[in-house]
């Protein structure tokens, strides 16, 4: 371990993860406060409706949006490393243009689809219009250019500030809505405002950072003109978009599908279990956010980025084991304290899903390594296979075994995701000598 920490890149990943981790600990606690107030301030059925409304907007956003932050990291980080500022501007212009287009399509599609799904989602007339209001958040949820900029310029401290501010505002609004008994409408408005302000902060931080570095005229949207200057950019954009849309169908749509199959109350229980699972998986997500930009500065033909991935996976797996043990001990009393005894059934779901924590955390470097190697297409194929299998499992097991079946399906889906990506990652490593170094000006095969 002493030798590992002598590696400057590994120390950078740990440092940036510490920035994000400090804010995410606060975010997780504040998120529990917001959910606790919502759970205590409404009936289980109305709490489930609130969860479904929020999950619906997020699912539409995740399904439609381009992964522009990955575009900025994939092309922009090497450009900055070689001091090619014009190329960095072109990357941001393309990324910004994609955010605008995908945001417009997502909000129109989300609003158009909602009337057909409102009955299945358990929405009455009043909650339907509040759900329509929530859909106007989709463009800000779909934009990820500013996070890509901040990652490329190594300003994870600013990302940490934003990630702590949004849940603070949500928790504050939820406390007010619960204390003054504003009901369902009060919670929707509180969650809406926190998302809107949080999304705006990202853009403000990114614009200030570009200005500080004298990178002007970058936030001017462009599609075809900018893309022509970036070799193989459309291939990367569409492949990562499809891969993430499939991921959204597997994850963000899970709560919505459970709500459709089993009703809003079951969706609320599943959401509580998912919240715990997401919280326990936070270390891996934080490591990935700092891991991806770091390996894009390295030569994929060498062993260094691959060994860095192995070290990071081992660290994440060890953390995952510790977190799973803590959740086993503290999960039940925590749910009882935060949400009340009426939601204790969620602990049974958490126990089923705990096994996937270690597996998913150890597998986090695979996506970044495949993108570094230019193997985004094979990653898309593996995601399609794993996600299609998960959706089938979720629907079938939910139908026959209820919300417990949904938990088993989620466990199986996480394991499939890691295992299907492992084979192409190992194959890319053994053929690494055929790869090219993007920062040298060459493109990946």
TrEMBL record:
Keywords associated with the record: Cell membrane, Membrane, Transmembrane, Transmembrane helix
Compartment(s): Cell membrane
InterPro entries: Poly_Biosynth_Transport (IPR050833)
Residues passing through the membrane, by range: 28-53, 91-116, 128-150, 171-193, 256-277, 306-329, 349-366
GO cellular component term, pick one: plasma membrane
Tagged with keyword Cell membrane: yes
Pfam name, any one: Polysacc_synt_3
Top-level lineage group: Bacteria
UniProt protein name: Putative inner membrane protein
Membrane-related topology note: Multi-pass membrane protein
């Amino acid at each position: 371990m002493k030798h590992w920490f002598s590696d400057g890149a590994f120390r950078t990943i740990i440092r940036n993860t510490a920035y994000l981790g400090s804010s995410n600990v606060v975010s997780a606690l504040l998120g529990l406060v917001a959910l606790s107030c919502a759970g205590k301030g409404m009936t289980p059925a109305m709490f489930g409706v609130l969860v479904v409304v929020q999950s619906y907007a997020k699912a539409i956003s995740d399904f439609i949006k381009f992964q522009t932050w990955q575009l900025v990291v994939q092309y922009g980080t090497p450009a900055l490393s070689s001091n090619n500022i014009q190329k960095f501007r072109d990357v941001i212009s393309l990324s910004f243009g994609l955010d605008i287009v995908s945001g417009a399509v997502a909000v129109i599609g989300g609003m158009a689809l909602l009337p057909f799904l409102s009955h299945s989602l358990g929405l009455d007339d009043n909650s339907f219009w509040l759900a329509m209001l929530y859909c106007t958040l989709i463009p800000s949820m779909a934009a990820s250019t500013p996070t890509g900029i901040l990652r490329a310029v190594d300003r994870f401290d600013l990302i940490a500030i934003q990630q702590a501010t949004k849940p603070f505002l949500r928790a504050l609004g939820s406390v007010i809505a619960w204390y003054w008994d504003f009901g369902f409408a009060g919670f929707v408005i509180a969650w809406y405002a926190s998302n809107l302000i949080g999304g705006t902060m990202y853009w403000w931080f990114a614009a200030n950072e570009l200005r500080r570095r004298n990178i002007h005229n970058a936030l001017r949207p462009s599609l075809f003109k900018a893309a022509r200057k970036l070799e193989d950019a459309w291939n990367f954009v569409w492949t990562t978009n499809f891969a993430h849309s499939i991921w959204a169908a597997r994850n963000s749509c899970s709560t919505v599908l459970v709500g459709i199959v089993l009703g809003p109350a079951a969706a609320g229980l599943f959401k509580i279990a998912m919240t715990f699972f997401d919280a326990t998986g936070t270390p891996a997500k934080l490591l990935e956010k700092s891991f991806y930009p770091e390996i894009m500065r390295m030569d994929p033909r060498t062993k260094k980025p691959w060994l860095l991935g192995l070290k990071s996976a081992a660290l994440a797996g060890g953390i995952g084991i510790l977190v799973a043990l803590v959740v086993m001990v503290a999960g039940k009393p925590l749910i009882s304290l935060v949400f009340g005894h009426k939601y204790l059934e969620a602990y049974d779901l958490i126990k089923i899903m705990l096994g996937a924590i270690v597996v998913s955390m150890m597998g986090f470097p695979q996506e970044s390594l495949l993108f570094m190697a230019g193997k985004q297409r094979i990653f898309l194929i593996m995601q399609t296979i794993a996600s299609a299998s998960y959706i089938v499992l979720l629907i079938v097991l939910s139908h026959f075994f209820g919300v417990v079946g949904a938990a088993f399906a989620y466990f199986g889906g996480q394991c499939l995701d890691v295992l299907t990506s492992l084979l192409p990652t190992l194959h890319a490593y053994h053929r690494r000598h055929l790869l090219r170094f993007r920062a040298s000006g060459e493109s990946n095969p």
